[in-house]
Amino acid sequence: MSKGADLGHRYFTKGVFDFLRELEANNNKMWWEDNKDRYINTIQQPALDFIEDFGDKLNGISPHFVADSRVNGGSLMRPYRDIRFSKDKTPYKTNVGIHFRHVRGKDVHAPGLYVHLEPAQNFAGIGLWSPEAKVARAIRQAINDDPAGWRSAAHTKTFTDAWSLSDHEEDYLKRVPKELDPDHPYPDDLRLKSFTAGTRLNQTMVTSADFAGDLLAMFRRARAYAGFLCDAVGVPF
């Protein structure tokens, strides 16, 4: 357990964003090798400390979300891009991704918690992004069948003061699926392709000693949302 286990600790510094900006301008193996120790000290180790400490608090949301502080295969996403099928052949990611997966996440498409750090594009997310068709249908059916439960999960002031569903039209089907209720109180939600809620973060928040505690409080505000999605896809919450 790191020294910041009470979450009153500054994990991320301005150096995180300086590094990512420089990496974007020098996205090649030579620069990376020259600066790899800087990556480890400025980003990787602070992120692993954050993950370990944050994991101690995740039970306040659900005991089924996992904080894994391993360097490889854990909650900290690899800095290397998969360029096999991409026109963009730059080898390194210019952001930091942290994913607290559901314990069933390796077996089924399950909700998770996500933190994204990138200059001028910091955000947190919760839910399922672009699930397979049968999972998306199961969630839409659950929303259709339990509008009151969905309202409590995604349309209360507690939730909407911190989180929002997508406002991009490309994230929606063109119309409510014909098997669902066109007069549902939340018809647009029945058109969703992804079931994620997001909240914007800024660099001042991320580099504050209060960041982990504030983030935990925001995730707690989305607890009912995460629970609804877990129930809809049949995983424990």
CATH-assigned fold name: BirA Bifunctional Protein, domain 2
Rg for CA atoms: 19 Å
Look at the helices and sheets and give the structural class. Answer: alpha+beta
CATH architecture descriptor:
2-Layer Sandwich
Largest sheet: 5 strands, antiparallel
CATH class: Alpha Beta
Low-confidence stretches: none
| Intertermini distance | 25 Å
Query: Mean pLDDT, rounded to whole units?
Result: 95
Strand order of the largest sheet: 1-2-3-5-4
Shape: globular
Instruction: Write down how many β-strands occur, each being a DSSP E stretch of 2 or more residues.
Output: 5
**Overall tally of structural domains:** 1
Helix coverage percent: 25-40%
Beta-sheet strand percentage? 5-15%
Per DSSP, the total helix count is: 8
Order of H and E elements: HHEEEHHHEEHHH
Give structural notes.
The longest helix is centred in the N-terminal third of the chain and has 27 residues, at 29-55. Helix 3 packs across helix 8. With 237 residues, this protein is α+β, with helices and mostly antiparallel strands. A hairpin with a 4-residue loop joins strand 2 (112-117) and strand 3 (122-128). It has helices at residues 14-25, 29-55, 133-145, 147-154, 157-160, 203-206, 211-221, 223-233; strands spanning 96-100, 112-117, 122-128, 164-165, 195-201. The protein has a 5-stranded antiparallel beta sheet.
